[in-house]
Amino acid sequence: MTYSEVIKQDHPEGTMSVKAFKLVSAVEREMLMGDKAHINIECIECCGKNLYIGTNDCFIYHFLLDEKISTAGKVTFAATKQLHKYLGFKKSVTELKAASALTRLLVLCDNTITLVNMMNLEPVPTGARIKGAVTFTLNENPVSGDPFCVEVCIISVKRRTIQMFMVFEDRVQIVKEVFTPEQPYAVAVDGYYLCLALTTQYIILNYNTGISQDLFPYCSDEKRPIVKRIGRQEFLLAGPGGLGMFATVDGISQRAPVHWSENVIGAALCFPYVVALDDEFITVHSMLDQQQKQTLPFKEGHILQDFEGKVIVATNKGVYILVPLPLEKQIQDLLASHRVEEALVLAKGARRNIPKEKFQVMYKRILQQAGFIQFAQLQFLEAKELFRSGQLDVRELISLYPFLLPTSSSFIRSHPPLHEYADLNQLTQGDQEKMTKCKRFLMSYLNEVRSTDVANGYKEDIDTALLKLYAEANHESLLDLLVSENFCLLTDSAAWLEKHKKYFALGLLYHYNGQDAAALQLWVKIVNGDIQDSTRSDLYEYIVDFLTFCSDQDLVWKYSEWALQKNEEVGVQIFTKRPLEEQEKNINPDDIISRLNKYPKSLVKYLEHLVLERRIEKEKYHTHLAVLYLEAIFQLKSVATDNCTETTELLFKLRSLLQKSDLYRIHFILDKIRGTDLHMESAILYGKLEEHEKALHILVHELKDFHAAEEYCIWNSENRGLQYRQRLFHMLLSVYLNTGTSDCALVMAAVDLLNNHAAEFDAALVLQLVPDNWSVQLLCPFLAGAVRQSIHTTRMTQIALGLAQAENLIYKHEKVKQKGTPILLSDKKVCQVCQNPFCKPVFVKYPNGGMVHTHCAANRHLNSNMIHRSSSSSNQT
Amino acid sequence: MKKPDGKVVLLGDMSVGKTSLLHRYMERRFQDTVSTVGGAFYLKQWGPYNISIWDTAGREQFHGLGSMYCRGAAAVILTYDVNSLQSLTELEDRFLALTDTASADCIFAIVGNKVDLTDDCALSPETEDENRPEKSLASCGSIKVRKQVRAEDAIALYKKILKYKMLDEKDVPAAEKMCFETSAKTGYKVDYLFETVFEMVVPIIVRQKAEGSPQTVDITDYKPAKRTKSGCCA
Ligand SMILES: Nc1nc2c(ncn2[C@@H]2O[C@H](COP(=O)(O)OP(=O)(O)OP(=O)(O)O)[C@@H](O)[C@H]2O)c(=O)[nH]1
Ligand SMILES: [Mg+2]
């Protein structure tokens, strides 16, 4: 909250003003003085309905004031004269104060305060009075605590003297007399604190302790000082330069000053306003922001006072009442002129004057209204904050935008309306740019609140509105909204999306509402080009993916056909990428296979998935896959003679399958490739049949691929031991050498084989096979390897032999040790178990020396305890 | 109305830029001001505390209000215009006495404003103004004058204040730390000034709170009623 300085400006009324007060006449001149021009009003007092007027010809008038409110809310006052009383001097009545608890009116006339009855204006019979008073005031925050006593403070006729009195029904009592550093001119009291206007300054004086506190200098000679208590421990003072200064009893200022005119005569308070009177105007300032709020022309005023919240002004001849307009009305006026800040300040300031519940309802409403004002000015940040703090029903805002609320929404705008706009069109007056901004705001606002408490109860309205905004604006968040938890109403949203041709999104909406069939139907139409929506360029893949994870089998069957037709390889993913548990539970692979029969590529992919990925060990899948590979290869070969990459790839796959799988029907496949040029494959198949000679023969003679032949030996002997491997290699060597024709290439291959794989051969066998005419040179690496191997083996064997002999020796030594000295059996030697003598020269001796019968030793497991005990006892003997 | 926990008061001759400084800090902009009438204040939320910042009127006419505004203040920012030696002298002659009513442990800051008008170029790299291009244009394009008040002069004044307050230099923040040169126009060092002051005010607030109601005046501060000769209204 800021309290900024006030700049006195002579605003024409209306531009800056609030209508805070209305000036209403209370007592007309005729009622008082008729045509006697010399009679002037000197002072007034108002207490409840009683209005007292003191005149310069020493009369007191008593009126009853009746407030009347017309049906239009117009307030008027009717004053009925009750009495008038002449006090019997030639002096004016300078001050009147009512003490309603005592039914007394305190009358200051001729420097004397007399007590008169409030009703009949008769002086109290005791004649109690206070003499020597220049002016007086009542302590509105009395310290005595006696309800039948008022505390009166007077400025005495004695120089620099203030006196405090207690005034009872019919007596007065002086309490205190204090002296001031300068002559006092005006005084106000709060508790023990006197706020005094002295000749050159204002001070606070505690009459109980005598301690004083300077406030600020002021020249009372030049300008009439004003000292006015405005509340607990706070005073309002006329300061230099026409300032209305606030000061507390502590001598500090808690509010910025208000700026009056230089010649201000009087001031009054009517929360939250400070009212001031000068010779031409009544001015109204707010205590909340110090700004001038209203100016009422008022000539020749000379009294301005507030009485229990009622502000009365008077000229010499007439009395008027400043009737405050209800705060709510003032706030509404401010809002109506779009002065949001001030309206809020005023509303907040009214908090303590209005019952809590009522205030909260009112304040919330004001915040909401203010929010709409800011909104209409496109001050969205401010608006949002106000909507938030005012807990606005978001639908109020949504309802400004045509067609956004779902048709089913039960929402009705609050009454009276929170704003003056029928809809956004009216608010923006058709300005498209503004309209877009407003829509963008609503989008972000709804997006923010949809997951908060604010949305509770109308999530459907909010999400549907948001969907509509997104769709219309082509906003990417539309999809995010639809794929996450949302409350969009189906019928409303569907119609809107259709209207804006958001078919993909519409599909998502259907899907979210469990209508996958409808969703798919739409999407397929988009892909087929029957309807246009370019949201996703990869919609086909999206559908495939959707079907992959779709658990509705009927839909999967229905649309997989379409998907496969479009693209076999991608379409098959519906089955191959399907989550495993889903596959295992619901769909029989055989059904899929029979469906895929029309789509060979898909079928291959699917079988690969079964065989290679899922490793399903079923002969028919393996054989089927092999056959499919074969068919594809034949097919390709029939059209192109050269090996294209596709063939190579297929061959690679086929070989890999044939090699790795043991499940397919070997003979069946072999039959299929017999007579073709798939030599490698037949070799593999023969290998599977353990017909290695045939296989190697093919590799060496048909394919002439020696490397492949070697490889063959290696992978066929994998995990089968050295023996098996040597057998294969030997076989290969034989194939190389036993050809009859001495093919040079084969010989070379044989040599290489031997030289490179010396370890895989039994050299002795090899040497039998090798032709005699081969030079040692030729087989040098092999022979060297073989000899080295042989020597190595010999040595290793010798070492093993040596080690074994050593071990044997150790055992022999043990044995000899164990034999030890001979044992003599006699009748005295008894079995430690049964304590009987040994009858045969057969016994068992334990390492500790204990001797037992063989049968007793055999029983020892049955009663190991006993053995244990007897053996220990034997140790003792 | 929220009750402030502590008070900071800006004092200084008229048109040295008190209102502009406060405005720059609170509203983040520089705009035309009118000479302040009486005083104005802002509430600033600083951590858990509400600090009231009083902008006083430099005009002679309102001089008398100064003591009251300073009463119980936790910090006083004495402001001068770096291009007016007179405005610095005034601080000592006219404004220092007003701070007698401030809290006993009140801290003092001396601020030379309007450095943008001087040819002192040291400020450009440190400028805090977001509108740098505008600033450099406005400040470097206009005719620069030699700065009339040197930083040392302000430091000397600060030391005089300590003497006047009978404070030991050891017990208070160093002069170099408490003398600032700012520009309300460019924003140069304005945040730094207020934030430094608030930072130092917090411990005072904490102590004031511990000792009793905030902003009430030490009883020893009351003077027995006496005649004052000080200025009558102009
Ligand atoms: N170039 C420049 N001008 C400034 C700066 N600060 C203030 N001014 C100008 O100086 C003039 C006075 O500024 P104010 O902020 O009203 O001065 P003040 O101290 O509040 O004056 P009083 O309210 O009379 O006490 C205005 O015209 C400002 O635009 C500044 O940093 N640089
Ligand atoms: Mg100012």
TrEMBL record, chain A:
CHCR repeat start and end residues: 577-741
Keyword Transport among UniProt keywords: yes
Keyword Transport in annotation: yes
Record's GO cellular component terms: cytoplasm; membrane
Subcellular localization, as worded in the UniProt entry: Cytoplasm
Protein keywords: Cytoplasm, Protein transport, Receptor, Transport
Major location category of this protein: cytoplasm
CNH domain boundaries: 38-311
Pfam families in alphabetical order: CNH, Vps39_1, zf-Vps39_C
Gene Ontology biological-process annotations: autophagy; endosomal vesicle fusion; intracellular protein transport
InterPro entries found in the cross-reference section: Clathrin_H-chain/VPS_repeat, CNH_dom, Vam6/VPS39/TRAP1, VPS39/TGF_beta_rcpt-assoc_1, VPS39/TGFA1_Znf
Official protein name in the record: Transforming growth factor-beta receptor-associated protein 1 isoform X1
Species: Apteryx mantelli (North Island brown kiwi)
Gene that encodes it: TGFBRAP1
UniProtKB/TrEMBL annotation, chain B:
Pfam families with a match to the protein in the record: Ras
Signal peptide coordinates: none
Keywords: GTP-binding, Nucleotide-binding
Superkingdom of origin: Eukaryota
Transmembrane region(s): none
Keyword Nucleotide-binding: yes
SMART domains attached to this UniProt entry: RAB, RAS, RHO
Protein family: Belongs to the small GTPase superfamily. Rab family.
Protein name: Ras-related protein Rab-20
Organism this protein belongs to: Apteryx mantelli (North Island brown kiwi)
Name of the gene encoding the protein in the UniProt record: RAB20
